[in-house]
Design a protein that fits this description.
Helix content is 25%, strand content 32%. By secondary structure, the protein is α+β, with helices and mostly antiparallel strands. The model has no long low-confidence stretch (mean pLDDT 95).
């Protein structure tokens, strides 16, 4: 029986932001600075490199949507050639250099930057990667487990999250190198992987995300996750992709 990868994704501005600075990559498909009215599901054969990623433009700094779109389009273009930890790391370093190069001698783009988090689905394993505080979760029978590594300081006492980030793609006046987080995870049929911006995880607790993923599959799960963020005030752009390997 043929194996496949189903990716259900959406991107929305939320309730407080004037526009969407998130961008999304699903294989060759990108969604940059716009919204999806409903979750969209794309299906791919398992065996070819499939890259799924969320790029979150830095709020409070100029041209976040430009930076995130640049990262998304670069990753979509080079995704099919990625095959392991070294190539993923180099791809993220390439994106970092590209953001700085795009802002060079353009004052309106100075300090623009983006976080990124994603998954590269290979035939027998999945590579989780991130720079910044967008996240990747492994969703299994044992529950929800974050596999990305947050580039952020501990939240202040009394707060569950923080908006500060310690490294991003671009984001400074002078070039700063990044150290991407890349982890290899064995593929397990039936398990799912959630890639999302902090517009989901800041207002919605891990416990609530876990419950919604246990109760729903694919499109319904994506919708309910988005709705939970909106019901919690929708303070930021909300972008998520739910990856499922099936037979």
């Amino acid at each position: 029986m043929a194996s496949y990868v189903a990716v259900t994704a959406l991107s929305h501005a939320g309730l407080m932001r004037e526009h969407n600075e998130d961008s999304l990559v699903v294989g060759p498909w990108t969604l940059c600075g716009t919204v999806t009215e409903n979750p969209q599901t794309l299906v791919f054969p398992l065996g070819r490199s499939l890259l799924v990623a969320v790029a979150d433009g830095l709020g409070g700094q100029p041209a976040g949507e430009v930076a995130s779109a640049l990262v998304a389009r670069r990753l979509a273009a080079i995704g099919p050639a990625l095959d392991g930890t070294e190539t993923v790391t180099e791809a993220l370093n390439l994106c970092n250099r590209a953001v700085y190069a795009a802002a060079e001698d353009r004052p309106e783009l100075a300090t623009m930057g983006s976080t990124v988090a994603g998954a590269l689905v290979l035939e027998r394993s999945l590579l989780s990667f991130n720079v910044g505080d967008s996240k990747v979760f492994h969703v299994s029978r044992d529950g929800l487990r974050q596999v990305s590594v947050d580039d952020s300081p501990p939240p202040v006492p009394g707060h569950r999250t923080t908006s500060a980030v310690t490294q991003t793609l671009g984001g400074s006046h002078a070039f700063e190198a990044v150290t991407p987080h890349v982890a290899e995870i064995p593929l397990s049929p039936g398990d799912r992987y959630l890639v999302c911006s902090d517009g989901l995880t800041d207002p919605v607790t891990d416990e609530e995300i876990d419950r919604l993923l246990r109760d729903h599959d694919d499109g319904k799960a994506a919708f309910e996750l988005w709705k939970a963020a909106i019901d919690a005030g929708g303070p930021d752009n909300i972008t998520l992709a739910l990856v499922r390997v099936g037979e």
